[in-house]
Amino acid sequence: xxxxxxxxxxxLMGQSGNVPGALMxxxxxxxxxxxxxxxxxxxxxxxxxxxLDDDNDTPPPVAxxxxxxxxxxxxxxxxxxxxxVLWESN
Length: 90
What we know:
Oligomer: single chain
Number of strands: 2
Shape: elongated
Largest sheet: 2 strands, antiparallel
Order of helices and strands: HEHHHE
Strand content: 5-15%
Mean pLDDT: 87
Number of domains: 1
């Protein structure tokens, strides 16, 4: 994840958005639930994408829920393995 998108996802998980950070194994499942609830709430509030314009080469924006898929997969794997999750900036 990069920049503001990563921080937005951290905040939806109930985190401060600070980097570096971590979740202890027992906090991963509640964080995943918060993230999924936040994404559900956000998807109902989002405006529909603008119609495609053949003259515009700009790709349509990618929904935050789509960008969150790798994070959701990581949190689910951490839950299954009863592991903590760390994040940092490179």
